[in-house]
């Protein structure tokens, strides 16, 4: 086979890149390790910056989002029993956040790629990029027991943190940065009406978060140890612990019910530099991971695709290589900004092992400062909603 761009990874980043390239007249083939059923069953975050909403609309997948998404002026933080403040992105940054599940985004992208005749090869095994440092790269894979090859001009690695794409960059070239946090998030999803707001809780028992996916689907998290056994957390233990970490007025509004999904996510920050090598370009989790506290993971993947799709379009339509040459530098500026705000919120809202009274007072003082200072809240809201692309 032959195409202009091979996209390794059929999650939201890979599918969105394929769609945006198609709209600009650039051909691509998407290779996905898992089946479509498996991809659509993956539970991931879904809190979108306004810039991400506009990109999805531009890609032709905004209709359902506009109809079913939860539009928020920001997110609430509660602490010290009853104190609270709103990260008011609408007031301080002029834009809203939108809660819309990543599974929904993936469904929308599959639908539009199918309708436009996009080539998506699911259950592609042993995918491997080759000759990425030449002008004739190619990708091999196995499908239904048959080894196949695709010749291409460029390869886009959208295959996540544990995929094959990043490994194709020589160790002498690649530089990585990582911070592992000493806790994780225990999350559940339930078919219950969510709270009206997205609410973060800083509590002596640990962090908690109330989030949402749609009017009948709630998502909740509590801070837990990294080595927590999910079997030790049946629903009848999770719900009381969750409610204990919110003020009584909020806890009483939480509707409980049987969980339909339960998982533990360890928290870490990770960045790989550069995000390109030869004819290979990384996007999304293949290049960076952020703790979910700042709601930046999916949004960074979308912004990477925004930059990369335009760079590839300029190459094919205008014979302009400047965008490809500057892609890594451009994307990494936004990546490190998102890493910083995610690191800040993670440190502000969680309880750390061996945290002393001084550290706790600093957390509380910082929260009080945010609640009282418009300048501080404007600064936070600007970063929370996402810096301009």
List the helices and strands and how they pair.
Elements: E1 5-8, H1 12-23, E2 28-31, H2 36-41, E3 47-48, H3 50-58, H4 63-68, E4 70-72, E5 74-79, E6 83-88, H5 89-93, E7 97-99, H6 102-115, E8 119-121, E9 125-130, E10 138-143, E11 146-151, E12 154-157, E13 175-190, E14 199-202, E15 208-214, E16 217-224, H7 235-244, H8 248-251, E17 259-273, E18 276-277, E19 280-282, E20 288-289, H9 297-318, H10 322-349, H11 357-372, H12 374-385
Parallel strand pairs: 1-2, 1-12, 2-8, 5-14, 12-19
Antiparallel strand pairs: 3-7, 4-7, 5-6, 9-10, 10-11, 13-16, 13-17, 14-15, 15-16, 17-20, 18-19
Helix pairs in contact: 1-6, 1-9, 3-9, 9-10, 11-12
Quick structural summary:
The chain has 389 residues and is of the alpha+beta class. It has two domains: 5-69 and 99-178 and 268-346, FAD/NAD(P)-binding domain, CATH 3.50.50.60; 181-267 and 356-385, D-Amino Acid Oxidase, Chain A, domain 2, CATH 3.30.9.
Task: Describe, in plain words, how this protein is organized in 3D.
With about 400 residues, the protein is of the alpha+beta class. The chain has 2 domains: about 220 residues, FAD/NAD(P)-binding domain, CATH 3.50.50.60; about 120 residues, D-Amino Acid Oxidase, subunit A, domain 2 (D-Amino Acid Oxidase, Chain A, domain 2), CATH 3.30.9.10. Helices cover about 35% and strands about 30% of the residues. It is built from 12 helices and 20 strands. The strands form 4 sheets. It has an 8-stranded mixed beta sheet, with helices on both faces. A hairpin with a 2-residue loop joins strand 10 and strand 11. Helix 3 packs across helix 9 and helix 9 packs antiparallel against helix 10. The two termini are about 35 Å apart. The relative contact order is 0.17.
């Amino acid at each position: 086979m032959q195409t202009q761009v091979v996209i390794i990874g059929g999650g939201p980043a890979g599918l969105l890149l394929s769609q945006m390239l198609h709209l600009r007249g650039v051909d691509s083939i998407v290779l996905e390790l898992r089946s479509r059923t498996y991809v659509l069953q993956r539970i991931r975050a879904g809190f979108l910056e306004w810039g991400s909403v506009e990109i999805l609309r531009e890609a032709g997948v905004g209709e359902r989002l506009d109809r079913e998404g939860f539009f928020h002026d920001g997110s609430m933080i509660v602490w010290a029993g009853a104190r609270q403040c709103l990260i008011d992105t609408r007031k301080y940054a002029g834009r809203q956040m939108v809660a819309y599940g990543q599974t929904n985004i993936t469904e929308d992208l599959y639908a539009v790629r199918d309708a436009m005749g996009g080539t998506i090869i699911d259950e592609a095994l042993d995918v491997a990029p080759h000759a990425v440092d030449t002008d004739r790269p190619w990708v091999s894979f196995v499908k239904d027991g048959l080894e196949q090859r695709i010749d291409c001009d460029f390869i886009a690695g959208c295959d996540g943190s544990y995929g094959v794409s990043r490994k194709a960059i020589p160790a002498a070239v690649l530089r990585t940065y990582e911070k592992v946090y000493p806790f994780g998030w225990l999350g559940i999803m339930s078919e219950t009406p969510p709270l009206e707001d997205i609410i973060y809780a800083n509590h002596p028992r640990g962090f908690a978060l109330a989030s949402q996916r749609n009017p009948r689907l709630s998502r909740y998290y509590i801070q837990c140890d990294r080595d927590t056994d999910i079997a030790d957390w049946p629903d009848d233990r999770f719900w009381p612990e969750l409610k204990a970490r919110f003020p009584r007025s909020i806890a009483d509004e939480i509707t409980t019910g049987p969980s339909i999904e339960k998982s533990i996510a360890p928290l870490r920050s990770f960045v790989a530099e550069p995000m390109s090598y030869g004819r290979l370009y990384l996007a999304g989790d293949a290049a960076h991971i952020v703790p979910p506290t700042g709601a930046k993971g999916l949004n960074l993947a979308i912004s990477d695709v925004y930059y990369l799709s335009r760079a590839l379009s300029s190459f094919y339509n205008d014979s302009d290589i400047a965008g490809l040459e500057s892609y890594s530098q451009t994307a990494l500026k936004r990546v490190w900004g998102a890493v910083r705000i995610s690191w800040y919120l993670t440190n502000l809202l969680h309880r750390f092992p061996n945290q002393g009274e001084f550290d706790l007072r600093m957390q509380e003082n910082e929260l009080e400062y945010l609640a009282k200072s418009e300048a501080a809240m404007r600064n936070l809201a600007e970063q929370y909603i996402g810096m301009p692309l």
